[in-house]
Design a protein that fits this description.
8-stranded mixed β-sheet; nucleotide-binding (chains A, B); 6-stranded antiparallel β-sheet; AceGlu_kinase-like_sf (chains A, B); aspartate kinase activity (chains A, B); Aspartate_kinase_CS (chains A, B); homodimer; 2 domains; alpha/beta; VC0802-like
Amino acid sequence: MPILVMKFGGTSVADLDRIANAAEKVKREVERGYDVIVIVSAMSGKTNELVNWVETTSPLYDAREYDAVVASGENVTAGLMSLRLQEMGVSARSWQGWQVPINTTSAHGAARFMSIPRANIDAKFAEGFRVAVVAGFQGLSAEGRITTLGRGGSDTTAVAFAAAFEAERCDIYTDVDGIYTTDPRISPKARKLDKIAFEEMLELASLGAKVLQTRSVELAMRYNVRLRVLSSFEETDENSGTLVCGEDEIMESKVVSGVAYSRDEAKITLFTIEDRPGIASAIFGPLAEAGINVDMIVQNISEKDYDDAHTGAVTDMTFSCPTNQVARARKAMEDAMAAGLIKYDDLIIDTEVAKISVVGIGMRSHAGVAAKMFEALAAENVNIKVIATSEIKISVLVDRKYLELAVQALHDAFELDKA
Amino acid sequence: MPILVMKFGGTSVADLDRIANAAEKVKREVERGYDVIVIVSAMSGKTNELVNWVETTSPLYDAREYDAVVASGENVTAGLMSLRLQEMGVSARSWQGWQVPINTTSAHGAARFMSIPRANIDAKFAEGFRVAVVAGFQGLSAEGRITTLGRGGSDTTAVAFAAAFEAERCDIYTDVDGIYTTDPRISPKARKLDKIAFEEMLELASLGAKVLQTRSVELAMRYNVRLRVLSSFEETDENSGTLVCGEDEIMESKVVSGVAYSRDEAKITLFTIEDRPGIASAIFGPLAEAGINVDMIVQNISEKDYDDAHTGAVTDMTFSCPTNQVARARKAMEDAMAAGLIKYDDLIIDTEVAKISVVGIGMRSHAGVAAKMFEALAAENVNIKVIATSEIKISVLVDRKYLELAVQALHDAFELDKA
C-alpha cells in the first residue's frame, strides 16, 4: 500500500480531545488506502515543563540527560495517539526512537539523522498494522543513548521518514492552514498558496515565515519529498493546505510568490577598514566563532579620504544579524581589534531595522523585479539601507517603522492577492 | 568497590527539592565508598496523570501502549536525579529499562524479570562512574516493547538489581522511618524494629502493612538480599530504619514481632454443602477463575441435620476475601451452583469483619502463643469468628468495630512496646 507520513505538532496534540481529532484525520487517510506513519510532538507545554526541570536541576546540564528527560514528552503522545487509533478500530502501534531505530549522530540536543532502517516498521505493516505512530524529535546514538534533534526536530523527523519510506507525501498539520503570500496579520490581502516550490519555501522559511523549519524544507528538497502544510483545526481534504514541491509540479508560477520579513534585525557597520585580501575572513571568522548568525553582508567603497593612519586602500563593511546577538557581535569585533586582527575607525550599530524580501523562482527568467521592488518602496518614501540578492530573492533592510507599509506596498505591487 | 542499591519512591522524588534531598543521601553513600545503583519511581502524581490519560483515551487499553506511556514517568525522574548528582560533583548517568537491559516477560502491566545482565552498568562503573540511576517499574520484553511490572514494581526492581549486582544491601527510602511492631496510628505504643526476618516481613506485608510489597520481600528472601527500610525525610545513617534480613542475622528474637491487620475483609460462608472429596476444588476453582483473592479457608462440620435433599454427609465452608471482591465471589458461587458443580443451602456474607494477625518466627519454638492471643481478645470481649494459622503467624477474623481494640490488646499482651 502507498505510504503517507502525517505530522502533528504540539498544539495539534495539546490535550486528549485534540489527539482524538488528529486521530480522526489519520483514520480518514487509512480509509483512503494509505499505510500511515504518524510523527507526533509532545503535548504543548510538556516540553517546556521538562526543559524547565532540567535547567533548574542543573544549569549547565549534561546534554545526554537533557535528551533522555525531554524526549519522554513525545513518547507519551505516541502512546496516547496509538491508543486512540486502536479505540477507533485502526490497528496502530507506537514507536520510540530507539525502537525503530532512528539512528543519529551523538550531537545531543542537535543530533542529525544517520539512518532510519525500514525493517521493523515494514514488518508491522506486513502483519496488517496500518499505522506506525513515531515519537518525533528524537533518535538513538551509536552509544545507545537517546538523542534529540533540536528546533523543528519533529518536522525534520517527518520528512526523514517520508524519504526513508518513499512516502507519497508528508503532511504537516499545524495551527495555520497553509503558506501565504505574506503574513496575513500584516497584509489582509495575503492569499493562501496552493503550491510553492522548495526553493521558495526555503527562502521564506529562513526569512522569517515560521510555519516550517528551514532544515525540514532542505531535507524535503534533497530527497524530493512532497510536503503539505495544512490545519489541524479545520476539516481538510486532498486539496487543503499548501503543497511544497519541486518546480516541475508547478505549472505556471508568478514571478514573485511571496513577501517575507524579519522584524528583529540589526545592522552593524565597520568604518574605514583596510581593503585588502583576507579582510573579510578576518572579520567574519571571529563572528562565526562567537556564534553570530550573520545574514546580509555588503562592502562599500569608503567615501572617506585616506589619512595618516591608513597607508593602503580603505573600505566600509556592513552586515546584519538578529538584534539579540548585537552585544556579542560588538564584543567579537572589539576583541578582534584588540588582538590586532582587524582595524576600524568606528563601529556603528543600528538596531531599528527590519528585513523585507520578495521571493520567487520566476525571478530567474524575469528581469526587472528589483527595479519594480525599489520603485514600489520609493513610492511610499521608504528608504532602503542595504540590498542583498540571490537567484530567487531580493532582500532589503529598511527602518523598522516602515515594515508593515513596505510589506503591503510590495504585496500590492506584485499583485500577490490575485491567483 | 562494594555496591549499594538505593530506592526512592514517588513521594521521595515528588519535586525538584526532594530529588535534590535524595541525591544528597546518594552522595553520602558514594563518599562512604560505595558504587551506587539508584532506583527511582515517577514523581508522585505523574503516574496517575499518565494512567488517567491512557484510561480516558482507551478504557480497554492495549497494555503495551499503556506501558510505553506510563513508564515515561520513571525515565524523567532518572534523568533529573542523574543531573542533580552531576551538579553535586558525583559522576552519574541515567538508565532506562531497555538500556540496561532489564529483560522481562511480555506480561504487560505485570511483567516479571527474566534477567538483568550486568555488563553495561559494570562497564560504566569500571570507567569511573559512581552512580547508575535506573528507572524503576519497567523492563523490556523479548519483542522489544517496554513493559511495566505492576504494583510495587520499583521496590521489586531495587531488589532484583541488588541480587544481580550482589549488592551489600538494598535501601528502600520511603515516607516512614521503618517497620513497626504495629500501625502507630492504631497503637501509640508501636515501636520501630531494628531488624525483622524475611519471613516475618512477608507475613506483615501480605497482611496489610503497606511499607513493602510482598513480591519484593519474596524476591529479597529468595536471593538473600538484605533490605533496609528508612525515611527519605529524616537524617539517616548506617543504623537508621529497619533491616529486613535472614534469621541468622537476628540474635535474639521475640516470640511475636508484630501485630498486623487488614481492615477490608469479608467472610463468606456456604452452608450445607456435600462433604465429599473434590468439594473444595469445586468451590475454589471457580473463585480462582473469577480472580478472587481467597485468604483464610475454614471447613466446619455442619451442625445441621441431614434432610431429604442431602443423602450424604454435609459440611459448611467459610472463606475470606477483600470486601471489594464480594460481589464477584457471590456470582462465581451462584454460577457454579447453576452449573451443577456445587450445591449449598445458603450463602451468607459478612462484610463487617477485619483480620488481625500476630507474627513471629519465634512461634516455631514456642507453644502457647495462640492461647495467649485468644485470652487477650477474650479479656476485651472480642469474639473470634474465624481462626487460621501458619508456622509463624496466627490470624483471626473479628467484627471490624473491634479492630483497634484488638490490635492494642495484642500489642500489650505480647509486650511489643518493649525492646
